[in-house]
Amino acid sequence: MEKRQELYTGKAKSVYTTDDPDLLVLHFRDDASAFDGKKKESLARKGKVNNIFNAFIMQRLEEAGIPTHFEKQLSDTESLVKKMEMIPVECVVRNIAAGGLVKRLGVEEGISLNPPTFELFLKNDEKGDPMINESLAETFGWATPEQLAEMKSLTFKVNHILKQLFAEGDMLLVDYKLEFGVFKGDVILGDEFSPDGCRLWDAHTREKLDKDRFRQGLGGVIEAYEEVARRIGIHID
Ligand code: ATP
Ligand code: TYD
């Protein structure tokens, strides 16, 4: 497999074509961003930590029956993935109230959400990733009703698997965002799962161990990501 030209460079990762038209290389950079790219910083080791973290989670999800784009880890900061047609809709599940939900509805941070909520956001930085719903996604052609049903079902299956995995490391999976795409007609999980796209709290102290440390300027961002990794048995040099 040979890496060819850069296809796209996002806020945290760069995507490269390969000599195989079905495969791409994802390069996890050290760049951190929040608030739709308004806050930006370079954090040493971030690319490596997120690449290794994501590889571990994607493999765990595959083993548990979730179809993903993940093929293999190529180096500290690169992974090989299936080239998908991305569905421009982000799926968010919340087990505990935090972040945007607290701001939007004025509910108290930290309350349990039973049943967990499911929200859709349009992947569009210029418009600040606005919240959408199934009807808008169908009308504007962002996703079909069948794709939306599959994305919802897979997103909740992921919740079941990962809540348990993080609980074993004494952590609460507060909320997370997933992105899906289409590969040879099937809806599969894409992008990444790392502390950049979810909230994780220590189960006892409720200390934040995720990107909120960056958003809120709490410091110790990558140290927290590495702590999460250590607690679920990921070894990072
Ligand atoms: P976001 O706000 O979602 O993080 P971004 O474009 O800045 O947006 P990056 O993670 O920096 O995000 O860039 C990675 C890009 O690659 C994303 O647009 C993502 O949707 C896309 N992508 C991820 N996996 C695949 C894949 N398997 N095939 C094609 N594109 C992919
Ligand atoms: P949310 O609380 O809606 O937004 P914010 O990041 O502004 O607080 O996000 C819920 C979870 O989903 C949170 O863990 C962050 C993640 N997420 C992303 O990583 N990217 C996104 O574009 C969105 C909408 C959510």
Automatic annotation (TrEMBL):
One of its GO terms (biological process) is cobalamin biosynthetic process. Pathway: Purine metabolism; IMP biosynthesis via de novo pathway; 5-amino-1-(5-phospho-D-ribosyl)imidazole-4-carboxamide from 5-amino-1-(5-phospho-D-ribosyl)imidazole-4-carboxylate: step 1/2. It is an enzyme of class 6 (ligase). GO terms for molecular function: ATP binding; phosphoribosylaminoimidazolesuccinocarboxamide synthase activity. Residues 7-231 form the SAICAR synthetase/ADE2 N-terminal domain. Keywords: ATP-binding, Ligase, Nucleotide-binding, Purine biosynthesis. Its EC number is 6.3.2.6. It catalyses: 5-amino-1-(5-phospho-D-ribosyl)imidazole-4-carboxylate + L-aspartate + ATP = (2S)-2-[5-amino-1-(5-phospho-beta-D-ribosyl)imidazole-4-carboxamido]succinate + ADP + phosphate + 2 H(+). Pfam families: SAICAR_synt. One of its GO terms (cellular component) is cytosol. Belongs to the SAICAR synthetase family. This is Phosphoribosylaminoimidazole-succinocarboxamide synthase.
